[in-house]
Amino acid sequence: MRNGQVSLLLSGGIDSTAVLAYYLENGFDTRAYFIHYGHAANDIEYKHAQIVSEHYNTSLTLLRFTGATYTGKWEITGRNAFLILSVIIASQSYSGIISAGIHKGSSYYDCNENFINTMKKLISGYSEGAVQLDFPLFEMTKDEIITYSKLHNVPIESTYSCQIGTDKPCGKCPSCIERSVAMRYVYNKDRVDK
User: Fold this and answer.
1) What do you get for the CA distance between the two ends of the chain, in Å?
2) How many angstroms separate the CA atoms of 29 and 96, rounded?
3) Which DSSP category does 3 fall into?
4) For 80-87, which contacts have Cβ atoms below 8 Å and span 24 or more sequence positions?
5) Is 34 helix (H, G, I), strand (E, B) or coil?
6) d(CA 107, CA 15)
7) pTM over 0.85
8) Taking the CB of the first residue and of the last residue of the chain, which one, N or C, has fewer CB atoms within 10 A?
9) Using one digit for the tens of pLDDT, what is the confidence trace for 44-100?
10) What are 134's strand-pairing partners?
11) 161: Cβ contacts below 8 Å, ≥ 6 apart
């Protein structure tokens, strides 16, 4: 579906920003969505999603939902399904691709192959085949995404990855740790390879 329309779930993090770069480089008409669902990090994530969308001159639509409460655990049950279905709800006549920065290496259920296959079937049914799910980073680890981002001039410094939502990332949540470990690995490898 080259040069088709893509609705991208843009969180303001490295993964979804790399996906945005991928689709734009491959000639897709790409529109970004930020879903504000009341999580502690949503305000600062939205700020970074705006910075990224301005960098790429891409439209960014904010969808806001209220009423959810969180138990304090890192995994939010149903999150990725909810985000994907939010785009379907917001775009009743949409056809094309829905995408996100889902990648290899996450232990969360809604980042594995079973979840993706279930959602593909669900979205195809809801849209009568007019909408496809595509996750171009699915076979990539975080360090491979960072390497890809460096090679494709993705503005890593404009992205944000922290589940706490403080201005300065906490450095202790799973998102901060995953990002920090991958960044150190890639940049140390670059120094050794030179």
Assistant:
1) 38
2) 10
3) T
4) 80/108, 80/110, 80/111, 80/115, 80/119, 81/110, 81/115, 81/119, 82/35, 82/37, 83/9, 83/35, 83/37, 84/9, 84/119, 84/123, 84/133, 86/33, 86/35, 87/7, 87/9, 87/33, 87/63
5) strand
6) 16
7) yes
8) C
9) 999 999 999 999 999 999 999 987 776 667 778 889 999 999 999 998 777 899 999
10) 99
11) 13, 14, 169, 175, 176, 178, 179
- For the purposes of burial, counting CB atoms within 10 Å of the CB of 54, is it exposed (0-12), middle (13-18) or buried (19 or more)? exposed
Q: How far apart are CA 182 and CA 179, in angstroms?
A: 5
Q: Which residue segments constitute the domains of the chain, with CATH numbers given? A: 5-193 (3.40.50.620)
Element (H, E) at 76: none
Q: How far is CA 49 from the centre of its chain?
A: 10
